[in-house]
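Need residues for this backbone.
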């Protein structure tokens, strides 16, 4: 039996990148995993299939975060396939403006700003709010933050870092509130990770210089893989982390030292 056998988990943005690594690891540890996706149904089905091929259980559910009624839609889809929850991972997030570009304070529009906060901050807030009646005592809430909240971000990531800074406050305050139910709440803060989201500058022949810079920043001398983050989340989801709550976990490979 795995460490999470008998548990049910929900991972938002669970079909790609870090989310997929989290989903697959929780599945290997025995949890039945709800793999949330916004638009890419194919990726969600592939993640579910990978979990099942490894001997686990999973199901896909769709809800477009950042849209009106997103939390309600998410939980309605979840309730069709599961009863009760043990582990909630708020992983889904975006770092670009509405048109898919990175913009600094001089270019970011009100619509861009609102969209970033709607997906990265508002959605997790109301997902938790509406999920507390489903989350069992002794459960786990794990939020994906970023190393960019510990220091000045790149100018074009200012609004993204702000959304995650709010999530950090949400994490610590929620941990204090939910401790009476034995529920722990923590945030995992990755640095740059080799995923599809970062493929434009971390993969291919032109990415050699960028990868070398990242390797030099970390004392461990390499670029993070999504599984590095998934394994940290698995620890926080397990009973081994029962005395850890309200924490911001530096998952940058020492890049902030």
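Answer:
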């Amino acid at each position: 039996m795995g460490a999470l056998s008998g548990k049910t988990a929900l991972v938002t943005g669970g079909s790609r990148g870090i989310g997929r690594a989290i989903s697959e690891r929780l599945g290997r540890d025995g949890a039945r995993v709800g793999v949330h996706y916004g638009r890419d149904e194919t990726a969600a089905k592939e993640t579910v299939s990978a979990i099942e091929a490894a001997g686990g259980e999973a199901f896909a559910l769709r809800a477009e975060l950042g849209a009106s009624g997103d939390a309600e839609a998410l939980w309605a889809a979840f309730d069709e396939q599961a009863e009760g929850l043990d582990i909630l991972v708020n992983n889904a997030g975006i770092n670009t403006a509405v048109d898919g570009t990175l913009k600094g304070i001089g270019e970011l529009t009100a619509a861009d700003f609102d969209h970033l906060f709607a997906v990265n901050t508002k959605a997790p807030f109301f997902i938790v709010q509406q999920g507390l009646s489903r989350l069992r005592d002794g459960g786990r809430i794990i939020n994906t933050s970023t190393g960019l909240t510990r220091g000045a971000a790149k100018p074009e990531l200012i609004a993204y870092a702000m959304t995650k800074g709010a999530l950090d406050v949400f994490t610590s305050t929620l941990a204090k509130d939910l401790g009476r139910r034995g529920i722990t709440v923590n945030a995992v803060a990755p640095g740059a990770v080799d995923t599809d989201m970062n493929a434009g500058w971390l993969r291919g022949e032109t990415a050699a210089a960028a990868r070398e810079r990242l390797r030099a920043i970390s004392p461990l001398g390499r670029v993070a893989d999504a599984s590095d983050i998934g394994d940290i989340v698995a620890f926080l989801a397990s009973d081994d982390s029962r005395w850890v709550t309200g924490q911001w976990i530096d998952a940058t490979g020492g890049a902030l030292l």
